[in-house]
Amino acid sequence: MKEQQQEQSASWNMGRLMELATGYWKSAVLSAGVELGVFDALAGDGRTLAKLAAQLKTAERHLAEVLDALVALELLEKEDTTYRLAATAAPLLSRKSHACVLDALRFNMDLYPLWGRIPEAVRQGGPVLPPGAHLGADPERTRRFALGMHSRALGLAPAVLPALDPGNATTLLDLAAGPGTFSRLLAEQHTHLHVTQFDLAPVLAVAEELTVGHPAADRITFQPGDYHTDELPAGCERVLLCGAIHQENERFAQELFTRVRTALAPDGRFWIVDMMLEADRSGPLFSNLFSINMMLTSPQGRVFTADRLQALLLAAGFATVERKQPPWSPYWVLEAS
């Protein structure tokens, strides 16, 4: 029975192939809704088509095509000519919600044009985007990147944070912190925890902005630096590296893990939170696709297998490595001690 089900799921037909070939149509409609401001406009009560078109300054008939497609995608609901956010989608698409991912979707729009250039990247053996565009070289893109990662992290936090238990530790280094979302939430949950967020100055500026008024703001400090060249803050009991190792090659990953091991306090623990692949690199699918995203945007980045990261951690001097796979999250967690 199981073999029959696998055979059926693996079978191809014209309908399935066309669904794959036109899959970007769905993401294009979602991106259009973000760019046009549809979800922001519908964050409160429902709106009629005429009111939405006037508010968004669009052609009414053309807006209706996009709105109806969003209804078909089950992101919106429709009654006569009135549209509203679908109940289960509203927390993800409303800025009034802590789980809002609109900034993550907006950053995806920066990546969207690059995916049509996969053959170019493969032929030239390098990215199709200037190196460092989202890490300070382009200030506006850097800001969109950091806010997008913050938005995405808020959505993933309920799945990932339970795998990051600091225990009695009082100090945490958030290495390559980006917006610092996970470490900021950990500091909020664990009131004995003091956090140092370490990253490039243009990225860290967004993290500082996001920390203003936060309940744990008085226990979070910021240290600008580049983990490629600068000395790492020493003596922290926990080190978090989230969403960064996929930007590096294996040689540097090995070097960085060794430096983290040296910088850790005795009996400290090192968390790597990232997309990872199975040993034969044939899944999970999201990790494969994300590795292509890195191919398009980074001269050396790719998604590592969990097995390879574990081997690099052991070679760096860690005694044990525990692997965790949070539910419904693209992120895996490795905890090394």
Strand order, largest beta sheet: 6-5-4-7-8-10-9
Overall number of strands: 10
> What is the count of structural domains?
2
What's the CATH architecture of the largest domain? Answer: 3-Layer(aba) Sandwich
Average pLDDT figure: 93
The first-level CATH class of the largest domain is given as Alpha Beta
Helix content: 40-55%
Give the overall shape, derived from the CA principal axes: globular
Order of helices and strands: HHHHEHHEEHHHHHEHEHEEHEHHEE
Question: Hey, roughly how much beta strand do the residues contain?
Answer: 5-15%
Span between N and C termini?
43 Å
Task: Report the radius of gyration as a whole number of Å.
Answer: 22 Å
Q: Largest sheet at a glance?
A: 7 strands, mixed
